[in-house]
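Key idea: predict the complex, not the pieces.
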Amino acid sequence: MEQVENVLERPKLYYNIDGVGELGIGFMLLAYALLGWLQLHSSPNSAWNQMYGFFLYCGVMVAIIHFGSKAIKNRITYWRTGFVDYRPRDKYWIPLGLGLAVSTVFSVGLYVAMLRHSEMSLLVPLAGVAIAACYVRFTKQARWKWSTFGAMALSVLVIAALPTEVAEAFANHRDLTPVLTAKVVGAYGLMFAVYGALFMISGGISFWLYLRHTQPAAQEVE
Amino acid sequence: MNPQIRMIADLDRAIHEPGRLMIVTLLSAVDRADFLYLLHETGINKGTLSSHISRLEEAGYVEVEKTYRGKVPQTLLRLTADGRKAFEKYRRKLKESL
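Result:
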């Protein structure tokens, strides 16, 4: 019975067989880190700090992830290891529900913390641990991915131990609010950048291994 | 006969064969998948996979659609509503009988 349950999990893991899932997440985290850096290092009146600039940037980022993933799947993956179309529940509703739940918890947490003037820097390692915990899902695919998880856990410690000056430099020494200080914002930016890079490296290795270990199928699929 | 043993004897034979069980289990987790995906995931050879699919199609559990990806023929497979019901029933019975 347990074997049947394990087989049921396989199609979901198949989405990242070529590392596309990790590459997408990595790209998104790096793009957010870059946006944060651009916003903090440009004048408040620049396009980066306008709402339209934010939406335009996010639109381009989402389009690159969506169409980039689709292109890799259509041109490489489906020819090598087959095509899978997921159920609407798995494709839209569950990710949408999870996204909404996470952003709601994050927003409420941030609001409460700001009201109470809590020490926000404590939330940075917590967020890091949460992202690393999400990565555990990918470790089901290959054991070597545990080393990426280890690197993520280590980077939480490194970022927490960084001199304040380094984190503040990322944030251009600019406090956003009395609670969201340059140190906190900088630490978040660094965490996004480091995690993004780790996801990209892990996804890149997965993609390379996938190409190495699979061959395009014969022209006749059946 | 012991009811638990009776339950094992009542398991749907169209699904119970290991190869077909793999196919139905994989298809139950997706909307549709192609022949190449099942070939890759199950490790069954083409001929055997084809015959299992035909058996499931005869039982009304799998819908087969012949199409093209570009100029290359592609066989898409989907579990029918009856197939999903039968698989859920099979899982339930298997769980109860073990």
